[in-house]
Write a structure and sequence with these properties.
18 helices; 436 residues; TIM Barrel; homodimer
Chain lengths: 436, 436
Amino acid sequence: MTIITSVDVVDVRFPTSLTADGSDAMNKDADYSAAYVILHTDQPGLGGYGFTFTIGRGNEVCVLAAELRARPLVGRSVEELVGDLGGIYRELKSDSQLRWLGPEKGVEHLAMAAVMNAVWDLAARVAGKPLWRLLTDMTPEQLVDVADLSYVSDVLTREEAIGLLAELAPTRAERVERMAASGYPCYTTSAGWLGYSDEKLRRLCQEAVDAGYTHVKLKVGANLDDDLRRLRIAREVIGDEVNLMIDANQVWDVPEAIEWVKALAEFKPLWIEEPTSPDDVLGHAAIRRAVAPIGVATGEHGMNRVLFKQFFQAEAIDFCQLDSARLASINEILTVYLMAKKFGIPVCPHAGGVGLCELVQHLSVFDYVAVSGTLENRVTEFVDHLHEHFVEPCVVENGAYVLPVAAGYSAEMTAATLEEFAYPAGSYWAGAARRA
Amino acid sequence: MTIITSVDVVDVRFPTSLTADGSDAMNKDADYSAAYVILHTDQPGLGGYGFTFTIGRGNEVCVLAAELRARPLVGRSVEELVGDLGGIYRELKSDSQLRWLGPEKGVEHLAMAAVMNAVWDLAARVAGKPLWRLLTDMTPEQLVDVADLSYVSDVLTREEAIGLLAELAPTRAERVERMAASGYPCYTTSAGWLGYSDEKLRRLCQEAVDAGYTHVKLKVGANLDDDLRRLRIAREVIGDEVNLMIDANQVWDVPEAIEWVKALAEFKPLWIEEPTSPDDVLGHAAIRRAVAPIGVATGEHGMNRVLFKQFFQAEAIDFCQLDSARLASINEILTVYLMAKKFGIPVCPHAGGVGLCELVQHLSVFDYVAVSGTLENRVTEFVDHLHEHFVEPCVVENGAYVLPVAAGYSAEMTAATLEEFAYPAGSYWAGAARRA
């Protein structure tokens, strides 16, 4: 029997604010960070790794919350844990005192994501499989057993969920082959940060097209004249065949969103992302009706499955951008994928940040193989930075994520990274404090 | 000039789980707690006091979040702060790194509530007025200047908000007189906790009627047979004239809520409170349509003004139960009151917990005097415990909150309470650790 001997939660921060990477209309000074969970076991070489992503200050609050949330794992049998991945999720979630602090939202939910991501990583390592494979080897019933269907039975029953998965189960193998051959298509946001100069924007758009991307995304929403100029540059470079998406990072009220997006319509964006408050289901629905045929996308701040349920019910979005470190890991993400399937909405997961690309490649492959069965209207975000901090970084070739093969959820950071970027004691931050 | 010299945030916990006070279908072992903020100034005797309410474990996460959130206050001029209560709110809220952890929900929003409650308490003390008086002495323009109208302009513009307040401004004085004469009507939840025996329930219902209450609330949702028996007992004791409310504390999915509430319809509840996930606007709307004429109430876990906006837009609730320590203090609470006025929905604030009654008495008086102008269908929660820990506890007589007169937001705890119940170093908890 293998035992979880201890849990460490490390505050990891990267000084991305120095280069304006990640700058958008809402977030100007992000230091990309992670509350990074390590499940230690008494089996040499076996651990579980997971995290949630933040942008700097307050990461310590997530660290403290994850420490509290993970406490019941210590002393547990790994076999028991990975044998009932629905049970451990429900147990951790059922702490009514911690529940009060959400429920199922904000810091406590980010912490739950970090801890359960580590549990799923551990489960995949124990099985000797990449996470997508662990999931695609599960039967429809097994998958639905681990999915959290609470509060969504008005749109999706257990039987329906099994039925949706059963449809595609016989043909999973052929889609795995396709993934192995050509990977999962992605798009790049690296070109379009607000803090970049026009020259840099032009160069990065050209590089994106040259690298085989069919979709490019730009940040908008700080200044309309700037947006018009930047979108014109982007369209000049990428032409009419490449898709252009725009992302406002929640800066607008509903009427302003409608007006602004209409002013940018000439550049034919595929979607407007996060036009307003991520909580505003009815607001997104109103925007969608007003700006069609431009699509509405949101989800990176989508707090839980109950919110996504309503986005689907209200026909408020065209693209679902769930976040792998904000939803409570596979148990809740499965539910969102299943609802998206039922309502016919493509899931294009949010990524970037720290390690989100490493996680979502597994999710997208799983979706294609076992849930949606199609790549139509689907493209997963890719941002090309900070991958060097991971032991098994994602690989992108010809505008597609290469199918990951290593066991786990690709979530493990390197020892050198922890030594350098642990906050505030890591060598980078200690040095910065000395230099200041 | 007076300066804020430092901020303390104290983890205060009361061992309420020992007596089953506060037990409901979702929360069986609550230790009522507060992340309690003290703003110290260099003027002897002047401080600001505020808190958010939690139910035990995880309170330390809120404490850490409140420490971070309050940091920009240290060194500030008190005069500047209280002279621009909208400005300081927007400044604290604008921290984009902390915003990422919500936005405007969960632990970070609870922390914002605690800090801004202390700022408003300080402002009222500086003015030498109880908070309700500070607010009712402000002009419509001044009130709207401090209200957070971001993300709600699709339902409420600044001009509309001023107009709503201007209507009632000339007659505020007469309603203040009525409040001074007879107080603000309240109802009691003290009778109905799930953990109480039938005998205790019967006795407490009788005591409630004898004390002049016209509304009594019971917890439901754990077991239908128990609910039927307990509601029968309650109706026997209180008769048909007294209103009976029921509260499920979020235990049901939407279809189950509809079925269960219909099974209890014979007892003619005035409202069903928290029938399902507090995030489920469309779910509440579906329940409301199905169980009418039983009303639907929610709000104690209502995370922010964007959620309440949608409850109003979707005609999802009959009663709005905003929470004084979950919304971001007066700046956001004002917005919810103004939207409720526009949509014609009565606000019956959530209270109980630790010190929530002390806060909401100010809110309800303000609402009556300056916003709604009516008591129709309005009744504010009162739970009779833990008041002894406050320097100026609320007073209830004849089923009504007596108009508070002391300067401030009634939020200050006694020194003896902090000495005894600070966690884990206070004398009670240190003693409990020794006894264990």
